[in-house]
Design a protein that fits this description.
The relative contact order is 0.14. The chain has a domain of 101 residues. With 153 residues, it is mainly α. The longest helix is centred in the middle third of the chain and has 25 residues. The protein is elongated and about 40 Å long. Strands 1-2-3 form a 3-stranded antiparallel β-sheet.
Length: 153
């Protein structure tokens, strides 16, 4: 129950932060790369780069999120139980929520599926960390991260 509340809270905070960062439709902050309607990334001249813009964007965003979340989790683990376990649960829940937001942007495909496995693994660990006496196995998360990075390669 607590994990669900933390996840809902994390999503609300995430959506509140993202709401202020949205750009007008059709505009680009840098203008360097845009995505054409066919899903192909294009350069400034409108030439297709041969890369799927959605998949590359999801790979970069999710990989960056993983690299940002894991140090925060390690810092929370150092606190120790019970408060540290709740902090770890909150960090994993927030990380899963951020990754889920990137999945909805991707719209499917193998990269989105692999990212969903990472988010699901983070959510499962968050749920188990709510019990202050347990320390869940992170092997499924590590395997999901490896599969995600393989899908992005």
């Amino acid at each position: 129950m607590r994990a669900t509340v933390l996840q809902v809270f994390a999503v609300v905070v995430l959506l509140g932060g993202v709401a202020g960062c949205e750009q007008e439709a059709g505009s680009s902050a840098s203008g360097a790369t845009t995505t054409a309607s066919g899903g192909q990334a294009t350069d400034k001249g409108g030439q297709a780069t041969g890369k799927s813009g959605d998949a590359k964007a999801v790979c970069a965003a999710v990989d960056g999120d993983i690299k940002a979340i894991l140090p925060k989790v390690a810092e929370a683990e150092a606190i120790g139980p019970p408060a540290g376990h709740h902090a770890v649960s909150a960090a994993y829940s927030a990380g899963a929520a951020v990754i889920y937001s990137h999945i909805t942007e991707a719209g499917g495909g193998p990269v989105a599926g692999a990212a969903k496995q990472v988010a699901d693994a983070m959510g499962a660990i968050a749920d188990k960390y709510v019990d202050a006496m347990s320390k869940p196995d992170k092997a499924p998360l590590n395997a999901a991260i490896e599969a995600f990075r393989a899908a992005c390669a």
